[in-house]
Amino acid sequence: PEVYTISDTFEYQNYVNVYKDDDVHNLNGDYLSNKAIVKINLTDTVEETIDIVVEKTWYDNEPVAYRLFNDEGPVYPDITIRLWADGVEVASTVLKHPDTVYVFENYPMYNDDDKEIEYTVTEDEVEGYSTYIERPYADAAYYVYIYNTLQSYNVYYDPNGGEGDIPEPQTEKYGRDVTVLSNPFTREGYEFSGWNTEEDGSGTDYEPGNTFQMPAHDVTLYAQWAKIGSVSYTVYYLDSETHEEIREPKVVSNQVPGDTVTEDAIDIPGYVKVPPTTKSIVLGEDDNEIKFYYTKQEVIEDADYHEVVWKYETGYNTGVYTNRYKLSGEGEPEPIQYYIELHYDSGYTFKRYNTWTVDEEVEVIVDATSGSAITGTAIETTTFIELFYDRDRTGGGGGGGGGGGGTIIEEPEVPLAELEKLDHFAYIIGYPEGDIRPLNNITREEVAMIFYRLLTDESRDAFLSDVNPFPDVEGDRWSNRAISTLFNAGIISGYPDGTFRPSAPISRAEFATIAAKFDNLDLGMPSEFTDIVGHWAEEYITSAENKGWVNGYPDMTFKPDQDITRAESMTLINNVLERAVPKENIHPDAMFWPDISEDDWYFEIVMEATNSHDYTIEEDGDELWIGLKPNKVWP
Question: Above 80 in pLDDT, residue 303?
Fold first, then answer.
């Protein structure tokens, strides 16, 4: 310590002098008479400080677990360590690997009461690790070790309704590989279909022999069971242009054939759903698929009201934009520039716009340093603009999803080509595998092929073509001539992006609209369907309903945006063509398909559509097959 020496002269008064100071005073001197010269040695007290050293050790150099691996190998997590003085946090730091030592420097050893401060060190919890903190030596009060050790967790196996001996839990450290066991259980009437982390199968699936890395908690794997004779269906999430998967498909097992299942499109970041976003299918024995389509391009909502897109500075907002005028220090409004991007689908016509403003007095407080003071009130102006679009009743650009895109029929300037109603040839041929798949969805190119076959020879010859503008319909595609001919006839068109999307499914509304366009609209009676009011295809569905071409569901809905099945499409076409045969009047040598039976509601419908036959009409009006004939060959 430094020593300060000062001299002072004072009068001695024969009593003890009191010196008050925060420093320590050493008094030395001789008393002379009534006066004394006193030398005062001032010793400046220096506060004693300490350093607290913290050393981090990963016990046995255990690698950090699965979430912390990268291409270079194991990565150690950042560790937060905290310093406490008499139970109060006074400092913290983040220790980053490879640093293993940190020093809390220059902390006081004593508190204001001259008592020694007790310092402790803690570490924030590290997932998957246990923490042990110690001082290595009894006299090393300010040297702290922190040890981390991987914790172990268990994997349990649950029979989930099955029977059998439950295996012993698998115990493994956090981040280590776990190999999934084979199934030791049985369940009467069911077959094992794998393991899942959730009882209802909504978690992560694992097959025996799969591996996963142990998380920082126990895991229970539940046996999954599929009822023998049950079926499954798969939900696909596809890019509408490339038809590539943009997300793993969802497989739903243990379903009953003949049941109707409904799925909704999910939200996928970076993509917009293409309507319809709700789809239902009737489950068949196999090939049960629901496909949802997505696009990275903007999709116009299916409505006569479309909100504007504003561009303000560098930001974009969709909808009604509210702008508040800002005031400068002088009280002058700052100019704000609007940029309005007008856009709409083909199939819409811009009709009108409304604009109005609402003025409201608001208090304005201006910092005096930014300009002259403003007194009173200012006006806050809110501007609204609405843009209105009417859907062209020409049907638009062929939207393959139903709700937002219109139909694939455009309003012709001349009557559309005629359909063949007298010649009962097979207009659906079936698949090379020998089945007909009545409950599968029907695609846009299959629809094109059906109506190509159904054209009268005169109409087909008049519009025959192998050329179309669609980049996704190549010249050697099996459906190219059908698509090209119907496009040339003005019957079908593509999407606004120029594609046709031949493999995309078609909705009930779109299919009904195609059929309705081959005849005059019948709007004499209002529709009884409860879910088509305001739908873009309302008039066409109503006309088809009034003519007895389409049927709804027992709940009085039509489900216009649901994809149509092959059996449903054959029902509608047979009604349009006035083709119907009772089961008993089918020729015994007809083609019977392995995936339909006489008990199916669509049996006679499929037989009528898939067998070329000669017929007569009986007195009661029923069709009677009097012979079979070869299938027609189309140019």
Answer: no
